[in-house]
Description:
The complex is a heterodimer of chains A (388) and B (49).
Chain A: H1 2-32, E1 36-38, E2 45-48, E3 64-69, E4 72-81, H2 89-100, E5 102-111, H3 116-119, E6 131-136, E7 139-144, E8 162-163, E9 170-171, H4 191-206, E10 210-217, E11 226-229, H5 234-248, E12 253-256, H6 265-272, E13 276-283, H7 296-301, H8 305-312, H9 327-348, E14 355-357, H10 362-368, E15 385-387
Parallel strand pairs in A: 4-5, 4-10, 10-13, 11-12
Antiparallel strand pairs in A: 1-15, 2-3, 3-5, 5-14, 6-7, 8-9, 11-13
Helix pairs in contact in A: 2-9, 5-9, 9-10
Chain B: H1 2-23, H2 28-45
Amino acid sequence: MMRRTWVIKAILVVSFLALTILGGLGLYEQRRFDIPIVAGPGVTKVVKLSDYSQGLKGTIADTLVFILEGKEAGGKALIMANTHANEPEGMLAALIMIENAVVDRGTLIIIPQFNHSASRNTKPGDGYPLYFEIETEWGKKTFRMGNRDASPLDQWPDPDVYIHYPEKQLLSFIDARNTNRTWPGRPNGLLMERVTFAAMEIMRREKVDIAVDIHGAETMFPVTNCIVAPEKSLRIATMAALTVKAKEGFDSHVEPSPVGFRGLSHREIGDHAETLPFLLEAPIPFLDQPTGPKTEKFLLDGKDPFLLSLARKKKLFVPYDESGWPVEKRVGQHCSLTMEILRQHAKRVPDRAVEVRGVPRYADIVKNGVGSYFHDPAKAERSKIYLN
Amino acid sequence: MVMIFYYVISAFLAVLLIWNFIREKKNVEDMALYLLVLVPLVLRILRVK
């Protein structure tokens, strides 16, 4: 009897170790996996976000900031991606800009992994893939698939209710780890408040004219496929939306930023700095709830039979057919809209123009694929490679 | 500070579970449950998830 008990216990311990090691190893590796970024011809300087707020130094929330300076003086624009790290089209668009853009006038500041902690987090309960791969001419480039919120390993405990600073609005507890609810942040607050504070410091110290925060949103969510803008950015947003519709043939409507909903980039940036904020949303079916398995293929092609059925019942806020909503369209929209916002701003304030070339537009990315704009780190100069 | 306390609580619970697993002589279901509950605590203490 005693011997039987020990045999059972031994089997259970081996099963426990197998479960813990097999389950944990993948998560351990994903948290430590770095994405190589090849700094393109336009990158003149790479700094850390902590250079603008000491409270981030030495933390996992610290992240790379790529600066592309033009020869001629002009305005400044800040591009932020992976504010929500489970909306990777923003990061892909930002990386395309870092690897290809050349600034003729003004300065472009790009943060490709804004919520760096979230980009090393995942959502196993929803069956998220840990990685996704983009086909390139030189092989597959692997990216971490992150989560919407920072990892509890980096910011803990969650409060019962998140009290927004400085407005004291009561938000969901989970939003304490959401870098699109912690704006404008504070230097000694929660880790995610320190992240947004550092970005606010970039905008205030560098006198940034335009800030673009790039996202993705569910097809069943009304604020999707759009530019969200506060009152002072509405004119440029409207002109950008109309221009891409007329010239490039894709829709992106304009949503006014709600005054009473605090903590969002498109609201707080405009209220706490001179900068004009814009938040871009492209439809990402992967984030919808009534879908099939959350596979890497679904993340990239956006095809799902359940969403197709809902589209036929007119339950979605975007057109949806058998072609899904592939990553090429999403990234293409973000690149085109960002460039168009810069162009519209340059028309309105010529002495603060940011003139950029080398960034592919919507039709180019849909035709050539996202991967054709990434450079092979194996062939790049070592000094040009940054791990993020 | 709260974060450190949380890890101390996790470690304490992990020790309790291991102790109960060792003491359990008959009920196989309880033995399995002790180890199953231990998995997330171990992953948290090791800062994996």
